[in-house]
Amino acid sequence: MNKFLFVTLCGLIIYAPLPLGANRIWASSSIEFLVFLIFLLHLIIAIKNKQSPLPPKYSLPVLLPLSVTLVWLQIQMLPGLGEFAGRMIDGKGHSTLSFDPSLTHIMFLKTLAFTLYAWMLFYHVNTKQRLYRFSITIIVSGLIQAIYAIWLNLNEGMASPIFSMPYAPRAQGSFVYPNQLANYLALCLSIGIGILMSQLSLYSSGGRLRHKLRDLAQNILSPKIIIRLGLIIMVIGLILTRSRMGNSAFFIALAVIGLFAFFFYNRKPKHQRALIISFFIVDLVLIGSVFGIEKVKQRLVETTFQSETRDEVVRDSIPIIADYPFAGTGGGSFYSTFPRYHPEPYPGFYDHAHNDYIQFAVELGLPASLMLGVMVLYCLFICLKTMRKRKTPLYQGLSFGCAVAIVHMLLHSTVDFSLQSPAVALLFIGILSISIMATKLTPDRRQR
Predict the structure, then answer these.
(1) What is the residue-averaged pLDDT of the chain?
(2) What's the distance, CA 280 to chain centroid?
(3) In terms of Cα–Cα distance, which of 437, 380, 372 is closest to 405?
(4) pLDDT tens-digit profile of 159-208?
């Protein structure tokens, strides 16, 4: 039965982006329902087998900040605290700290689902083999999204067969927003690169032609070539999104972490540098030239402060943080709070800040936002440490991939709101969990 729960946790990663990136209340609710149902089964099975349902202690760096956030969201919804704190909205006193308790309640349920999902990952992904299989699931999910997005993008004018979404010139897959697909693919690509790196040989094949031909044949027949082809397809999907920061952040993150690996990676695989460089020469230059990387460059060149209003949204959101720096306006309340602060109408409608840092600070307040930021930075530190210290190729490779994913998210979040997509947030929580597992699991750790 534990195996069944592990399979369902993997299945959730594949399912989450399918219903419009879970970017609708009904879609995110379906994910929450499935997580709660799986967690209930987890509790029943643990009690029946007389086992502790609690995750290992090393899960605290992820679970503790998420749990504190849950408590804080509950506090924001408590009646009477708003009047006590002197909260005013439209000149009238407000009962709760949250200016929109209904939206805060929705964010609470999402955060609860993410927390329970991480809880079950730490509990059930407890062997090297399961960690590998969960990582492969992430790659498969990214590949499904990339193939679907490429197919729709190359069939110009065709509505999507799922939910009949209208054709868009920028690839968006099953998401409603191309930049969120770009972020999702970048995260899956990062884990794929980590898996591929973990499978590189540590030793030279020797100078003889016979040995080199043998190694070439082994590589062609091994899973490495299948994973590499899958990553190329995901890069094509990423390029077709035409996402400026989605593409830039991924390749910048890969370059930064790759440079770190050149100098500090413990027991470097023989072809590590060639693999990393190939992503810039083969994927970015050669493949990118065929599938329109020039259009991404053109969008970057044509970007101006006059044509973009995202910077104005950030500018007009700062007074909200200044007014409510500690308690915030309530989880999920940016949608209803921001219209009272921007001085003039924008050309488009903004229900998000297009900057995750600003949005979290507005809704949760600075202390809670800093706590979540420290959680992410700690996971990045753990990844870099694992790359330097550990000798198990899988753990080192996954730490490399998680580090690329985290740096990518840190960069992309400066200009977008990908973490507001439940599918992307669920995947990112999974990657943060992997970063901790890669430093704590041992190769001979037995399955519960």
Answers:
(1) 86
(2) 22
(3) 380
(4) 888 778 888 888 888 998 899 999 999 999 999 999 999 988 665 555 55
Contact 247, 178 (CB under 8 A): no
- Cα–Cα dist 386/396, whole Å: 6
DSSP 79-103: TTHHHHTT-EETTEE-SSSSS-HHH
CA 124 – CA 146 distance, rounded (Å): 28
H, E, C per residue of 152-190: HHHCCCCCCCCCCCCCCCCCCCCCCCHHHHHHHHHHHHH
- Alpha-carbon distance 87 to 329, whole Å? 9
Report the distance separating Cα 172 and Cα 21, nearest Å.
10
In angstroms, the CA 289 to CA 2 distance is 46
The pTM is what? 0.91
- Token reading at 165: 């979404």
Region 24-37: mean pLDDT is 94
Longest dimension (CA), the chain: 82
**Locate tokens 């031909």: which residue?**
213
Total H helices, total E strands in the chain: 19, 2
Q: How far apart are CA 94 and CA 425, in angstroms?
A: 30
Going from the C-alpha of 156 to that of each of 110, 166, 174, the distances in angstroms are 35, 10, 16
Stated length of the chain: 448
